[in-house]
Write a structure and sequence with these properties.
alpha/beta; 2,3-Dihydroxybiphenyl 1,2-Dioxygenase, domain 1; 4-stranded mixed sheet; 2 helices; 8 strands; 18% helix; globular
Length: 120
């Protein structure tokens, strides 16, 4: 039997801010795990379901989050998605002038790359 991927843990300088951003970006309900009030979200919002959960934790003292997530929006225009994510708190990291993607940073310091279509 193989393992199932059920959680992606994202280190962040601002876990609650990053979780709030991703909750709005994905339209998934923001939840919190107790004890510790650890923010998480998933498509189902049900902690018992084995769907993929994004879990946000505080980056270790003195470390800057360096992970990059790849967000591939479907059925949207790239400028519209960039504008929407910017209104939710994402900022540009300056990459993307000569690429088919736009690199951004969420409010918690985690990078993301927004593509209009998948690159296979």
């Amino acid at each position: 039997m193989s393992s199932a991927l059920t959680e992606i843990v994202i280190e962040s300088t601002d876990p609650h801010g990053a979780a709030t951003f991703w909750s709005a970006a994905l339209d998934w309900e923001l939840r919190a795990h107790e004890p510790g009030n650890i923010p998480w979200l998933s498509a189902s919002g049900d902690p018992e379901q084995h769907d993929l959960k994004l879990v946000f934790v505080k980056a270790r003292e003195g470390q800057t989050p360096g992970n990059r997530l790849y967000l591939n929006p479907v059925g949207c225009e790239l400028p519209d998605e960039i504008s929407r994510l910017s209104s939710l708190g994402a900022t540009s990291d300056g990459e993307g002038a000569n690429t088919p993607w736009v690199a951004m940073v969420d409010p918690g310091g985690t990078g993301l790359t927004v593509l209009a279509t998948r690159i296979d």
